[in-house]
Amino acid sequence: MIDSLVVYLQALPIEGILLAAFLLTCIENIFPPSPSDVLLVFIGTLIDGDILRYMIILGSATAGSTVGFYVMFLIGSKMGHVFTDRPSFLFMKRTTILKAEEWFRKYGLSLIIANRFLSGTRAVISFVAGASNVNMATAIGLSAISALIWNGILLYAGNVLGEHWRNIGTYLEVYGRAITPILLLFILIATGYWWMNKQKKRRHQD
Q1: What angle separates helix 136-161 from helix 122-131, to the nearest 10 degrees?
Q2: Measured between alpha carbons, how far is 75 from 87 in angstroms, rounded to an integer?
Q3: What is residue 3's DSSP assignment?
Q4: Using CB atoms within 10 A as the burial measure, which of 22, 119, 146, 203 is most buried?
Q5: Separation between Cα atoms, residue 55 and residue 89, nearest integer Å
Q6: DSSP-assigned letter for residue 86
Q7: 205 HSE (CA, 13 A, CB side)
Q8: What letter does residue 87 receive in the DSSP assignment?
């Protein structure tokens, strides 16, 4: 599938590339998993060292990421309580959402900043942010900053690697496998810390 998309992207004018960058990063936030990161690296090969082209493609990709985050944030804020009444919803279990909500209220802003760097969990983060009533303007702003940095790295990598852009796929795969257990461990520690504080408050109240 990636090969077919690459051939299609190569034939697009700059307007089509901008639209593709927007759609790839937007859809990836709503319907993961998606090969958007790898394809964005390929789009970086089409920059040909043109700084202006780099900036406008980066802007389009960042806008797509931010819109995708916003959509999932809205779904979480409007319908999160409905999904938590079910055993699971898509790739999110009810227990995961319930545990993450309270944790997100305390540590959510840091997680939003790291949002784009956490491959495979972006939709969950934006959904739980909305369900946890995080300030929308703050969440959207931080997600945009995160997307700007991450997308900038991917596009730059493609521009530098050129015809060797496929090599990045291996690194992204290894990165994804490494970052997931680290994130889970971080969530586990934060949840444990929250639970211990809750128990302490209960003992003091008694």
Answers
A1: 170
A2: 18
A3: H
A4: 146
A5: 37
A6: S
A7: 6
A8: S
Q: Judging by beta carbons within 10 Å of its beta carbon (0-12, 13-18, 19+), is residue 177 exposed, middle or buried?
A: exposed
Q: Are 29 and 119 in contact (CB under 8 A)?
A: no
Question: How far apart are the C-alpha atoms of 160 and 29, rounded to whole Å?
Answer: 26
Q: Residue 69's CB: how many other CB atoms inside 10 A? A: 31
Q: In the 8-state DSSP scheme, what is residue 115?
A: G
Pairwise CA distance, residues 22 & 39, whole Å:
12
The alpha helices in 84-166, defined as continuous H runs, are 94-113, 122-131, 136-161
Can you spell out the DSSP letters for 28-46?
Answer: HHHS-S-THHHHHHHHHHT
Polymer length of the chain: 206
